[in-house]
Design brief:
Pfam families: NO_synthase. Its cofactor is heme. GO terms for molecular function: heme binding; metal ion binding; nitric-oxide synthase activity. Homodimer. Catalyzes the production of nitric oxide. The chain has helices at 3-21, 28-42, 49-61, 86-101, 149-157, 239-246, 256-262, 274-292, 300-316, 325-328, and strands spanning 76-80, 109-113, 123-125, 135-138, 141-144, 172-176, 182-184, 193-195, 209-211, 215-216, 219-223, 226-228, 233-234, 237-238, 297-298, 352-355. The strands form 6 sheets. The protein has a 4-stranded mixed beta sheet, sandwiched between helices. It has a 3-stranded antiparallel beta sheet with strand order 3-6-7, with helices on one face. α6 packs across α8 and α7 (256-262) crosses α8. By secondary structure, it is of the alpha+beta class. The longest helix has 19 residues, at 3-21. It contains 10 helices and 16 strands. β1 (76-80), α4 and β2 form a beta-alpha-beta unit.
């Protein structure tokens, strides 16, 4: 099958499902005929805004690693397909940050830039997430987030310099049509950060904080055979993403020993379960801090219950819920959720998000 034939087939599958779900079955044949003619003439086709909206929402619904899919049809779509200059890209990205953050009442949002038409006709975002902390390799170890060390080095290569703290916000880095990447600072007032405190222990002594909104920006959105390589999107955090991974992992911020010291735990042997105790209280602190400071977040038990609702809704619509079990189970007390005890087919459905 040629690339053009593949594109026609992918378009047919998407348009059929999309228009059926939108209650527009009578328009399927006419729209598909238009698309085929466009592909034959130009080698590609463009989505209508309604197709873009529903396609992006379907991609979230089909995301096997995501536990938060109950809200798939509430995603806000920001259409940036006409943007094609540095200032426009920067403005669209900062608008996404502001719009999605919404003063803490986070809106699930995706900004979709122009579709991929080769390296010379493409927008590329280099950030893993729009907001992320820098990581600096030093003789004494990493300062900041070790996950960000390679990207931080890239930022420095193109002229950016951070302050060298554990929580330096990285700049936005992007390129247009195959040109060299450029960086632009995110205005400080646009970055919602949460200081981590605990209702009982003096966790503020840790000096830890985290940004409020996880905006993934290094995945490719595919809808009906069309790829959007610049399509940053966000939901809100599940507490364990921060408390059990970002701040706790040995190769990230590794705060459990410091938490244990504040809690005066016996760390002389593993059997005291000091790591478990510290981990639970660090997660308590994350949830407490976000809620106290008015930033949307969900605990892993509620998230699992919401996923159960999603499963029921999908069953009522005659759709099979796919999932990557390893990613769906939370990193803290997974066996307390129904997800842990249930298998899921890990089939990849489209539209979807893919790693580049």
């Amino acid at each position: 099958m040629s690339k053009m034939e593949q594109l026609v087939e992918e378009a047919r599958k998407f348009i059929t499902i999309c228009y059926e779900e939108l209650g527009r079955e009578k328009q399927i044949e006419e729209r598909f005929t238009q698309i085929v003619m466009e592909i034959e003439k130009t080698g590609t086709y463009e989505h209508t805004f309604d197709e873009l909206v529903h396609g992006a929402r379907m991609a979230w619904r089909n995301s096997n690693r995501c536990i938060g899919r109950l809200f798939w049809n509430k995603m806000h779509i920001l259409d940036a397909r006409e943007v094609n200059d540095e200032e426009g890209v920067y403005n669209a990205l900062t608008h996404h940050i502001r719009y999605a953050t919404n003063n803490g009442k986070i809106k699930p949002t995706i900004t979709i830039f122009k579709q991929y038409n080769g390296e010379k006709n493409n927008i590329k975002i280099y950030n893993h997430q729009l907001i992320r902390y820098a990581g600096y390799e030093t003789e004494m170890g990493v300062i900041g987030d070790s996950h960000s060390v390679p990207f931080t080095a890239l930022c420095q290569e193109i002229g950016w310099n951070g302050e060298g703290t554990n929580f330096d916000v990285l700049p936005l880095v992007f390129s247009i049509d195959g040109q060299e990447p450029v960086y632009r600072e995110i205005p400080k007032e646009e970055v919602k950060e949460v200081d981590i405190e605990h209702p009982e222990y003096p966790f503020l002594d840790l000096g830890a904080k985290w940004y409020g909104v996880p905006m993934i920006s290094d995945m490719r959105l595919e809808i009906g055979g069309i790829s959007y390589t610049a399509a940053p999107f966000n939901g809100w955090y599940m507490g364990t993403e921060i408390g059990a991974r970002n701040l706790a992992d040995h190769d990230r911020y590794h705060l459990l020993p410091a938490v244990a010291e504040i809690m005066n735990l016996d760390t002389s042997r593993n059997s005291t379960l000091w790591k478990d105790k510290a981990l639970v209280e660090l997660n308590v602190a994350v949830l407490y801090s976000f809620k106290k400071q008015g930033v949307s977040i969900v605990d892993h038990h509620t998230a699992a219950q919401q996923f159960g609702q999603f499963e029921k809704q999908e069953a009522a619509c005659g759709r099979v819920v796919t999932g990557n079990w390893v990613w769906l189970i939370p990193p803290l007390s997974p066996a307390t959720t129904h997800i842990y005890h249930k298998p899921y087919p890990n089939d990849i459905l489209k539209p979807n998000f893919f790693h580049k």
